Amino acid sequence: MHRLIILFFLCLTTTLSAQKLLRLETTKNARKLTYFVGNALVFRLDDDSKTNKNWFIERIVDIDLDRQLVIFDTWQVPIGDIIYVRQSDVNRGVKGGAKILQTFGASAAGFGLLGKLTPNCPNCNEAIVVGIVSFGVGSAIDWLVSGRRIFKIGRKNKLRLLDLTPKPDVKPV
Is pLDDT of 164 > 50? Predict the structure, then answer.
């Protein structure tokens, strides 16, 4: 019964469930990268001069599907003018695990070094070794997955503006 009530209220609030999004579709990767309103987008614009290599980091405020514009805080950009999109924070879960390993390694090595100051510490050398190894493995993982992916918009990669607003199926009288 409670599922029916929740479904009823979700159908009433169609304006709350409206979503406009910017989707980056790639041919090499089956999953699509999606940027919602409120997300930050890192991009470069199409310029005549090849010397301008400025990356813009802007927060998406709105998406205008009729005029094919992405609206940021201070300006608007046509979707066709964006030629590069950079995805930062690749593999956030793996990077989080690497940070946990680094923190554990530093604390274990610190525990071992502090234990060396006391006269009776049977496992201080092992704690130092485990701390150093764990910190090194965490740093190596962090270094390996810290790369940023840059997508060139063109034949293989496409940017699309989508509106996922549910439309009521009402026929005119």
Answer: yes
Q: Is residue 21 within 8 Å of residue 36, measured between CB atoms?
A: yes
Residue 41 CB neighbour total at 10 angstroms: 20
Burial of 138: CB neighbours in 10 Å, binned 0-12, 13-18, 19+: buried
Instruction: Quote the tokens at residue 112.
Output: 């071992």
Q: Write the single-letter amino acid at 53.
A: K
CA distance 123 to 39: 48
DSSP 8-state assignment for residue 105: H
What is the dihedral angle through the alpha carbons of 53, 59, 64, 69, rounded to the nearest 10 degrees?
A: -10
SS3 state at 23: strand
Q: How far apart are CA 80 and CA 89, in angstroms?
A: 25
> Which pTM value belongs to this model?
0.55
